Amino acid sequence: MIVFIKAGLVTFRSHLLIMLSYLLVLTVTATVQAQRITGEQKNDSCVCELSSSLWAFPTVKFEGVAKQVQTCENNLIEFHKKVKDRNVQLPKMERTLKDITARLKPFEYLNTNGLYNALHLRQLMEELDEIYYTANDAHKKNPSKETNDLLKELTRAKKDIQNMYKSNIFNLETTKTRLRDLNNRAQTCKTIPEDFRSTCHQRIMSNISSPVVTKLNSISSSYISGAWGRDAKQNSKERYWEHCLASGNKHGNTIRMYNSYEDFMATKNYKDEYIASSYSHNNAVQGSGTILYDNTVFYQCYNTPEICSFNITTKATKRVKLDDARVDNKFPFCYYSCRDWTDIDLEADQDAVWVIYATEGNHGNIVVSRLDPLELNITHTWKTHLFKRSVTSTFMVCGVLYATRFVNTYQEEVFYAFDTTTGQEINTLSLPFEKVSAGIANLNYNPVDRRLYMYNDGYLLAYNTFN
Q1: Please, are residues 393 and 443 in contact by the beta-carbon 8 Å criterion?
Q2: Which helix H or strand E contains 90, and what residues bound it?
Q3: For 178-283, where are the E strands, in sequence order?
């Protein structure tokens, strides 16, 4: 076929042109009708007028046909190239497949000898041992029926996994889900300060008001990513803060501080505190998940899966690594459209700082960790079933994680809650609230005034909340 196309291409074109020209001539001849022409005698001659336009060659039509023939020729040449390239590539693909098969051959024993299953079971057993240690430690410090029941269930889970070793039959995903739920129960049993939820008589939020504050950020409407709010520490001095991301809406190195609500609304008497010397410094801010708690800024450190804390008074910076956390837009907030650099979200609630992120180990679902704000270490970690990319934003109220989703340009909705006290997930919430633009860069709750603070595409909004 290739030889035919290559050798016969020119012949095909010339024959086609000749044939089309012949057809055009026949068409002209067929359309001409015989006519009787009357002559006139002049000076011993017979004179008559004859119009040659009746036999005019259809030049325009011929040129159109010639262009079509050229197009046909070009298509044939392109087809010939594709066939030629395919004939070259197919042997290469065949050799690659054979190479892959040969390279995988030595590893067949992992499946046939059961080693593949054994490796997974060993990982599950190690995870279960860690959960058992956590639950046992909680039981020793504060014995209760709940911790006792949890230890019994963990013991049964150990026996089930040991039986899996013998039967070589198990459902990996079902077992992982079971361990995730057991881990959440163990985390809940761990010691938390007595006054941690003293003001949380009502567990789940019931309503969100219309915006009580609407203001453009103090720099420019082009600064569409950032965060703002009030110092979240109970009984702390009234401080309002504003943090706008520059450098491609990704990095920041200053936070603007106000000593009163009036100064904030009038954008006066503020002070810009330098968190780092430049946008690219190791201690610079990455992403819009920033929070202020007890005059200390908590944020994602520059280009790392780490949390930084910057004390505005002492100028000291601490950091802690989030194990298995993914950054650089691996698991940002998305839902309607992805908001870049939102892999890690910091929230403050009562006497704790919360970190909301996602891990591959939890299949991209949201993980919630509780931070000790003074020591900057992780004290508790819960794993949810909520895929982080299916969420617009999150916030924490009384130890309960809330997630929002896009409704339209001017409306958002809280649709999900996860209670770290009970491990309960609620998927039936519907708490709508207003906004002035489509995108949300940051949403945080303040336990001092019980308001939600939103950074909405450069606009700063605040809402009252009701339990």
Answers
A1: yes
A2: helix 59-104
A3: 207-208, 213-216, 226-230, 240-244, 251-252, 254-258, 271-274
Query: One-letter amino acid identity for 210?
Result: S
Q: Token pair of 14, please?
A: 């010339």
Residue 379, Ramachandran bin (φ over 0: left; ψ between -120 and 50: alpha; else beta): alpha
Q: What would the two tokens of residue 91 be?
A: 């042997």
Q: Is residue 76 within 8 Å of 5, Cβ to Cβ?
A: yes
Rg over CA atoms, the chain:
37
Half-sphere exposure of 293 (CA within 13 A, CB side): 24
pLDDT tens, residue by residue, 162-191: 777 666 555 666 777 777 788 887 777 775
Alpha carbon distance 291, 270 (integer Å):
18
Residue 196 above 50 pLDDT?
no
How far apart, in whole angstroms, are the C-alpha atoms of residue 234 and residue 293? 9
pTM of the model: 0.68
Q: Which whole number is the average pLDDT over 198-217?
A: 84
Cα angle at 198 between 193 and 200, to 5 degrees? 120
Look-up: residue for tokens 């819960």? 382
Structure confidence by residue, pLDDT tens digits, 303-346: 999 999 999 999 999 999 999 999 999 999 998 788 999 999 99
Contact of 248 with 274, CB cutoff 8 Å: no
Cα separation, 408 vs 235, whole angstroms: 37
3-state class (DSSP) for residue 79: helix
Separation CA 242–CA 422 (nearest Å) = 34
Strand locations in 222-328, DSSP E? 226-230, 240-244, 251-252, 254-258, 271-274, 285-286, 291-293, 296-300, 306-311, 317-321
With H, G, I as helix, E, B as strand and everything else as coil, classify residue 460: strand
Residue with tokens 């991301």: 245
The β-bridge relationship of strands 291-293 and 45-47 is unpaired
Rounded Cα distance between 259 and 146, Å, is 46
